[in-house]
UniProtKB/TrEMBL annotation:
The modification 4-aspartylphosphate is found at D52. It comes from the Bacteria. This is Sigma-54-dependent Fis family transcriptional re gulator. One of its GO terms (molecular function) is ATP binding. Pfam families: AAA_lid_14, Response_reg, Sigma54_activat.
């Protein structure tokens, strides 16, 4: 039977949703924390999740990939009491079905639920499971796994694909994987690096030229668009394509015909386009440096690849894969790893992403020579220096465990007048202690700006103890409704 899971810390809202869902003849369950919600998703089959953003133990948007990657792969509808345009953008980029702001009408909620369930039913009966060859893409992190669903859809279709992501995240690898899993896999995968070609060279490189069309054109030359006939044309760093060429290429994309430089005849090419860029094309459109109509043509399917710092759980897998490959290449026995090796790698920021990681690992591999283990000492100095500096800065910013207790400034500037607590009648000792606890917690939350790690450190409470006290004394956390 269809099941809906509501993850929200407002009991009254959960009761309202349970009543609504039961009238729709579906099963509904509630969870008041992210932890409980994720546990239910791991153990139960759920069709749709109604997910709040501000919860006692975190932000719903932060765990969105884990929710969508749960065993039953549920659809997600964000329901929040705080309208946030940036949050809506992040949610939609994360694959949610809808983003509704409370109080949302019963009609709107019912409509969104029904549409999400219909979409889910259509998706499940569409083509059944698809077998993909993704042997070259390493990763099990929810962020990269979510990209696999889009990769599968792209491979099944002939639509244009736009792959975005920072430099070094593997955009060309994803493009090749789409091509190799598509109906065009028997034909060429042709790469055009738009960033490495001048405006004059790009047009002749794409469309080809006739002999004598310009100085140096000593013979006819077929362009890359022609070579991609029947296969896939991959435009790498499409954001660097000059505006003049964008106009010409838009017509080629629409008509699948083009005219080589210096020729009078039209040539046809049946190619599938995949484009990639690390730039923000929407901002470029606003600045008039990229054509809006071309962006719309490229945007049939959009895949955003997460940077390595957002998928550090994959770091060890990537390193082991690459080291094993290097051992085979150099005909050496497999190497082991010292714990400090991965400690340093996890602490580094990886601005160059997976490409930089592989470069760093290869340098460490070469430095280690015939040694059986890789240690942090084998890593390049710039990586170790960056990690050491970051660690020292963190140490200066945070007091050590041996430091004296925080000065009274971490509490209210002056203790409250006890008479404020006794306006109606003098309390019992137990009542006084409970009121004092509430004052302490409210002051502590203000002092730490709601930062849980800081609250835990100062108070000495566990998270479960803290949440129990917050609930008992009805204290509102910053950012909550």
């Amino acid at each position: 039977m269809t099941k809906i899971l509501v993850i929200d810390d407002d009991p009254e809202f959960c009761e309202t949703m349970e009543s609504l869902v039961s009238r729709m003849n579906y099963t509904c369950e509630s969870a008041h924390t992210l932890r409980d919600g994720l546990e239910k998703l791991e153990s139960e089959a759920v069709d749709v999740v109604l997910l709040d953003v501000c919860l006692p133990d975190g932000n719903g948007l932060d765990v969105l990939p884990r929710v969508r990657e749960a065993p039953s792969r549920p659809e997600v509808i964000i329901l929040t009491g705080k309208g946030d345009p940036d949050g809506a953008e992040l949610a939609i980029q994360g694959g949610v079905w809808d983003y509704l702001v409370k109080p949302s009408s019963i009609r709107q909620t019912r409509l969104s639920l029904n549409r999400a369930l219909k979409y889910r039913a259509d998706k499940q009966t569409e083509n059944g499971p698809v077998s993909l060859n993704t042997e070259h893409i390493i990763g099990t992190d929810p962020g990269i796994r979510a990209c696999f669903d889009l990769l599968a859809r792209a491979a099944r279709s002939n639509a244009q694909v736009l792959i975005t992501g920072e430099t070094g995240t593997g955009k060309e690898l994803f493009a090749r994987t789409i091509h190799e899993n598509s109906a065009r896999s028997g034909h060429r995968f042709v790469v055009v690096d738009c960033a490495s070609l001048t405006e004059s060279l790009l047009e002749s490189t794409l469309f080809g030229h006739k002999k004598g069309a310009f100085t140096g054109a000593g013979a006819d030359r077929a362009g890359l668009v022609r070579l991609a006939d029947g296969g896939t044309l991959f435009l790498d760093e499409v954001g660097d394509m000059p505006l003049s060429v964008q106009k010409s290429f838009l017509r080629v994309l629409q008509e699948k015909t083009f005219r080589p430089v210096g020729d009078t005849r039209e040539v046809r090419s049946d190619f599938r386009l995949i484009a990639a860029t690390h730039r923000d094309l929407e901002k470029m459109v606003e600045k008039k440096t990229f054509r809006q109509d071309l962006l719309y043509r490229l945007w049939s399917i959009s895949i955003r690849l997460p940077p390595l710092r957002e998928r550090t759980s994959d770091l060890k897998l990537l390193v082991m894969f690459y080291v094993n490959r290097l051992c085979e290449e150099y005909n050496l026995p497999n190497k082991g790893f010292g714990q400090d090796f991965f400690d340093v790698l996890r602490a580094y920021g990886w601005p160059g992403n997976v490409r930089e990681l592989f470069n760093v690992v290869e340098r460490a591999f070469v430095v280690s020579g015939g040694e059986k283990m890789l240690y942090a000492m084998h890593l390049p100095q710039h990586v170790r220096i960056a990690v050491a500096k970051a660690s020292l800065r963190k140490g200066l910013a945070e007091p050590s465990g041996d430091a004296p207790e925080p000065a009274p400034a971490s509490l209210p500037s002056a203790p409250p007048d006890p008479s404020v607590l006794f306006q109606k009648r003098f309390p019992t000792m137990r009542q006084f202690k409970e009121q004092a606890k509430k004052i302490y917690l409210e002051a502590l939350i203000r002092q730490a700006d709601g930062e849980l790690s800081q609250i835990m450190k100062i108070s000495g409470l566990s998270k479960s103890q803290f949440y129990a006290l917050v609930k008992k004394h009805k204290i509102r956390m910053p950012g909550r409704k």
